[in-house]
Specification:
The complex is a heterodimer of chains A (346) and B (288).
Chain A (H helix, E strand, L loop, with lengths): L3 E5 H10 L5 E8 L2 E6 L18 H4 L3 E8 L11 E2 L7 E6 L1 H14 L7 H8 L1 E6 L25 E5 L3 E6 L2 H9 L4 E2 L2 H16 L15 H5 L4 H5 L7 H5 L6 E8 L2 E8 L20 H20 L10 H5 L6 H9 L2
Parallel strand pairs in A: 2-6, 6-7, 7-8
Antiparallel strand pairs in A: 1-9, 1-10, 2-3, 4-5, 4-12, 8-9, 11-12
Chain B lengths: L2 H7 L6 E10 L6 E8 L2 H6 L7 E6 L3 E6 L10 E6 L3 H7 L6 E8 L5 H4 L3 E7 L4 H11 L10 E7 L8 H9 L4 E6 L10 E2 L2 H8 L6 E6 L2 H13 L7 E4 L15 E2 L2 E2 L6 E3 H5 L6
Parallel strand pairs in B: 7-8, 7-11, 8-9, 9-10, 11-12
Antiparallel strand pairs in B: 1-2, 1-6, 2-5, 3-4, 3-6, 12-15, 13-14
Helix pairs in contact in B: 7-8
């Protein structure tokens, strides 16, 4: 039987505080006009009154910049020029208050880093050491479209606990043993009765049904990749794009990275940084040839990857969780929902 | 074993340390050098089991990594070799390194030429310029006494701009003398009056010397212009696109299908390639 616990909002704040002796606890905090995820231990005050955070919590599992290896270039050192793994922290962490779209995004990204042939040791270790405590969305934004891409404002995919905001209290639904373990370490709260559970379920139903019109992606799987690639609309879609990369930076399902060496004196690091398919350097060959040298090719790559290539390769839905961040922040008003519609109806 | 130690062992980003044993300048312009690398730890050599057509990331601490086709053959034990064109930061640094220097190798990466499919067939090897590296690996592998009887005729067409730009010249002339393969070396042009080999572009020579195909597989590797012009010739000779294999190049970082830059459609050149059949390529977006 599924377990539910209920916490008054004050209780929940202290419950989260109590997690600190077991986890690095990341919570939504107010930062200027926006909300971001911050570390509770850095004195941040959790604020669960937000629509969605400006940035997704992807960097908690997958840092924007991370030391992979370190090495010495000192000729006197017998190990000079040999790479050694840089010290890393894989201790347990909890993301408390992650929206269901962002939890779904980690699931969609996982197939890239955890494959039958290779595992990215750092992404996988951090992912596995993370407990995801979701917060259902009572008030989705106008740009939200999670229900179109396999998620929902109260979707449980990729979550260990799902919280329902019932006004003066949180109802916590335990979804996995990892989530159960976390709630046992949190203090306070009490078992919830059926009335509260029914109240939460009807809230979820009401909000889900009120989600904005569905963005069609159902026809994409059967479309010809070559026909989509050669479609007449790419010039128009890309017209306003300035290749700023904001969409890929904000996107919780964008995973591309670059690897660079940095040296100071006689020691150095091999570092990986988030990268973006919006930048020409991303694909520039040493010879000067660039298979995606123009912006139309790059914009097409972004949408084709998300809505077609990913779907064809993994058959696990599209590489998008419907969070709407790219729609909200694009300086040229390029809207993935419209592009999906164009592609789906080609 | 602790989790940390297991992770370190399985880390696909960690290069094996190697020592540069020998450096050979291949071409008259000095831009291509072959590096023979020896593993510092014999266990790593055991782990590095490869087949011709695969590549590796050459790693230089402080500079970065470059994806390079493996030019040695798995039948040559005790070392790996890579022929590297001097182009950017990493390759320029590598060209200035000396025998005895320590660097790293990560791999083997990608797929190989379709060795199972080639069995009991004629093998036609077509190469141009400095893309002859994994074809050299293939040729040495094919000609090994253990392997030669598994394949029928071996026909090689290899061309470069000028005689001085051919790779592996000593080996080329030795292969020309053998009777268990047909070796056709060509140059675009030469003013050497003693040049005894072909003159002309690779596709022209292919048309002249390659027999029409009932049971042949073609491996093609070269600059884009050569690949483009060779395709119709092979088609005319009756090679179906399922039996023409090309090795592609792309800018790469991870080499294991994760960093996202080398895709053509839903295929990563680093992991699903670099070898694709022409039939496969015809179904992929023309973005390479």
């Amino acid at each position: 039987m599924t377990a539910y616990r209920v916490y008054s909002k004050e209780e929940w704040t202290s419950a989260v505080k109590a997690l600190e002796s077991h986890y690095q606890v990341f919570v939504p905090v107010k930062d200027g006009d926006f909300h971001l995820f911050g570390l509770l231990s850095e004195g941040k005050r959790p604020d669960f009154d937000f629509q969605n955070t400006h940035l997704s919590p992807k960097s908690i599992v997958y840092p924007q910049s991370e030391r992979m290896f370190e090495y010495s270039l000192d000729g006197e050192d017998p190990d000079a020029h040999m790479l050694k793994e840089a010290p890393k922290d894989f201790s347990p962490r909890a993301i408390v208050g992650i929206r269901p779209c962002d939890a779904l995004a980690f699931q969609r990204v996982r197939v890239n880093f955890d494959t039958p042939r290779y595992r990215d040791p750092w992404w996988v270790s951090r992912f596995e050491s993370t407990t995801f405590v979701g917060l259902g969305c009572n008030a989705p934004e106008a740009t939200c479209f999670c229900t179109s891409v396999g998620g929902g404002p109260f979707s449980e995919a990729g979550l260990d606990v799902l919280l329902y905001d019932l006004g003066d209290r949180f109802l916590a639904k335990v979804l996995t043993s990892k989530g159960d373990g976390l709630l046992k370490k949190a203090l306070g709260g009490m078992e919830a009765d059926g009335t509260l559970v029914r109240q939460a379920e009807s809230l979820a139903l009401k909000v889900t049904e009120a989600m904005p019109a569905v963005v069609p992606v159902d026809g994409l799987k059967d479309k010809s990749v070559l026909e989509l690639f050669e479609a007449p609309f790419w010039e128009d879609v890309a017209f306003g794009c300035i290749n700023c990369g904001t969409c890929t930076y904000l996107c919780p399902t964008c995973w591309c990275f670059d690897i660079q060496d940095e040296v100071l004196g006689k020691s150095g690091d091999r570092i990986r940084n988030w990268d973006s398919c919006m930048f020409p350097l991303f694909t520039l060959h040493g010879s000067g040839h660039n298979p995606r040298g123009g912006k139309v090719a790059r914009v097409r790559q972004r949408f084709m990857h998300k809505l077609k290539y990913y779907l064809d390769k993994y058959n696990e839905g599209v590489q998008c969780s419907g969070c709407g961040r790219c729609v909200r922040s694009c300086p040229a008003n390029i809207d993935i929902r419209q592009v999906a519609e164009l592609m789906n109806s080609l | 074993m602790s989790k940390r130690a297991r992770m370190t062992l399985d880390n696909p980003y960690l290069p094996y340390p190697v020592r540069i044993e020998q450096i050979v300048t291949e071409t008259e312009d000095g831009n291509l050098k072959t590096f023979r690398l020896v593993f510092l730890n014999p266990e790593h050599e055991e782990k590095f089991r490869y087949m011709p057509g695969q590549f590796a990331e050459l790693s230089i601490a402080g500079k970065g990594e470059i994806p390079i086709g493996i030019a040695s053959s798995p039948t040559e034990r005790g070392f790996l070799s890579f022929t590297v064109n001097r182009v950017g930061v990493v390759t320029a640094h590598l060209h200035n390194m000396k025998e005895g220097d320590v660097m790293g190798v990560r791999g083997p990466l990608g797929n190989c030429y379709p060795w199972d499919e080639m069995e009991a067939k004629n093998v036609v090897i077509i190469g141009g310029g400095f893309a002859f590296t994994t074809l050299r690996s293939s040729l040495v592998y094919l000609l090994d006494p253990q392997n030669r009887s598994r394949f029928k005729d071996v026909i090689v067409v290899y061309g470069a701009r000028s005689p001085g730009m051919l790779l592996y010249r000593d080996e080329l002339w030795q292969w020309e003398k053998r009777d268990d393969l047909q070796m056709h070396v060509t140059v675009d042009a030469t003013d050497d009056p003693d040049w005894k080999h072909h003159t002309g572009f690779v596709p022209t020579i292919v048309k002249k010397v390659v027999p029409s195909s009932d049971s042949s597989v073609a491996l093609v590797c070269g600059p884009p212009v050569m690949i483009r012009n060779t395709q119709p010739v092979l088609e005319d000779l009756g090679f179906p696109p399922e039996r023409v294999f090309l090795s592609l190049e792309m800018r790469m970082k991870c080499g294991i299908g994760m960093c996202g830059r080398c895709n053509i459609g839903d295929q990563y050149v680093c992991k699903d390639g670099p070898v694709f059949s022409l039939a496969q390529l015809k179904e992929m977006p023309p973005e390479y």
